[in-house]
Design a protein that fits this description.
It comes from Meiothermus taiwanensis. The protein has about 130 residues and is α/β, with parallel strands linked by helices. It contains 6 helices and 5 strands, in the order E-H-H-E-H-H-E-H-E-E-H.
């Protein structure tokens, strides 16, 4: 399966390193699935994790794992497609890599990904399906 995980998924994993979101993240990245990312996603993960006072070593470990096991994509032009303009970079990533699934803590903000053919799952649904 091809997947895009939004920032909230990574933050949930970082805030509870022994929890189900972190377990699912590791399973997805070390398994047969293709997890796509962009530099804009990594930048946002770092910014949000720092604001939430996540230990820098945990942030570095997640970024290192994502870079080692994920598939880097350079998205095309970013358009104003989402209710939250801060999510436009994520929609551009989805547009470029055409994932089967997008997992998000804020699925209502990412309805535009469904136009690209992706199935949109909440974090809970993603854990249930892939955890």
């Amino acid at each position: 399966m091809k997947l895009v995980l939004d920032t909230s998924f990574y933050i949930a994993a970082l805030l509870n390193p022994g929890g189900p979101t972190a377990h699912t993240l590791v399973k997805l990245l070390k398994g047969k699935h293709q997890v796509f990312y962009s530099e804009a996603l990594i930048k946002e993960i770092r910014e949000v994790a720092n604001r939430k006072k996540v230990e820098p070593r945990y942030i570095a470990a997640v970024v290192l794992l994502l870079r080692a096991r994920g598939i880097k994509v350079v998205p095309g032009r970013v358009r104003d497609d989402s209710p939250d303009p801060k999510d436009d970079f994520l929609i551009a990533l989805v547009r470029k890599c055409k994932p089967d699934y997008v997992i998000s803590g804020n699925p209502e903000d990412l309805r535009a990904v469904q136009k690209e053919g992706a199935i949109l799952l909440s974090i809970r649904e993603g854990i249930k399906q892939f955890g």
